Amino acid sequence: MLRHHSLLNHHQNADHSRIASSARRHSFLSDGVNLLHYNVIPYSTRVTQQLIEYFGWKQINRPPNSPDLVPSDYRQFLHLKLFLSG
Predict the structure, then answer these.
(1) Which partner from 9, 35, 39, 58 sits 20 to 30 angstroms from 83, CA to CA?
(2) CA–CA gap between residue 52 and residue 3 (Å, rounded)
(3) What is the rounded CA–CA span in Å between residue 75 and residue 55?
(4) Rounded to whole angstroms, how far apart are CA atoms 62 and 38?
(5) Containing H/E element for 59?
(6) What domain of life (predicted)?
(7) pLDDT tens, residue order, the chain (86 aa)
(8) Distance between CA atoms of 79 and 74, rounded to whole angstroms?
(9) Which residues are CB-contacts of 60 (< 8 A; sequence separation ≥ 6)?
């Protein structure tokens, strides 16, 4: 267990996170591969869907208006910030 205000490097943090979350996610991850789609490019969708079906992987689709941010969303906020600043 980590003490309050303790410092971790990247490897220690990764190990701690992996150990702490393994119990929570055991049943979810033991089912095989689970895919979470973010911004799917339309021309790759068909090929990707065929591979997913071929391997029998489970898909987890993100709702279209999800508040979760992905790296590609940050560009939109930059344009909005520039527009609003005048």
Answers:
(1) 39
(2) 42
(3) 34
(4) 6
(5) strand 58-61
(6) Eukaryota
(7) 445 544 444 444 455 555 555 545 555 555 666 666 665 555 566 777 788 788 888 776 666 665 666 666 667 777 777 888 86
(8) 9
(9) 34, 35, 36, 37
